[in-house]
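Hi F.,

I've been meaning to write this up properly since the lab meeting, where we talked about keeping a consistent format for the predictions we share between groups. The idea is simple: the sequence comes first, exactly as it goes in, then the structure tokens exactly as they come out, then a line or two of notes. No screenshots and no reformatting. I'm using this chain as the first example so we have something concrete to point to.
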Amino acid sequence: MPQLVVDALLFDLDGTLVDSTASVERNWRKLADKMGVAFSDIEDLIHGIPARQVVPMIEPDASAERIEELSQFLLDGESTDTGDVVALPGAAAALDGLPTDRWAVVTSGSTRLATARITAAGLPFPRNLITADDVAVGKPDPAPYLAGAALLGFPPQRCLVFEDAPAGVASARAAGTKILGLLTTHPELGEQEGIPTITSFEQVEFSADRLGVIVTY
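Output, unedited:
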């Protein structure tokens, strides 16, 4: 079985640790209606990229106030719509078995949204968390994963990122990290991005000692 030895792990949240797909789609549909566009026209943009970056892609002439208004509309909806948000298989066991100073969650959502979804899924709350509130530019820019590595105190080249979305993979690749993809949101992620993939954390074994984290998949 393939094996990686790294200093630390950086986990995306939605589609990686938690299944929030239904909530994401419900609330982006509401935003599409509010913006007067078809959901099918924006569906490829809704995973892995902060809303404040997606809104100008849909509405290029949107003012800063308009972007903030629409982003807040989406945040209010998603952060209170968590009834069917659940942990993905194997995620809780993986996090429970890792030293808290060796992993972080790096998400394109806000701190409010991340907190709501982590809580709803019943996952251990991360000691180290990077959200859209902590960086000027989100995924696919490398800033989030560079910030996650810095927060843990390790070079990005010595970190392993778990990602489910092309935007997140692009962010991790630009940051210089190792990457292991999850085929939860994009079934052909590995073929498209040329990275090793898994379908579930149930396929992965984690062990850690003072020298680092061993990931066997």
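Notes:
The chain has two domains: 3-20+85-216, 21-80.
Residues 21-80 form one domain.

If this format works for you, I'll send the rest the same way.

G.
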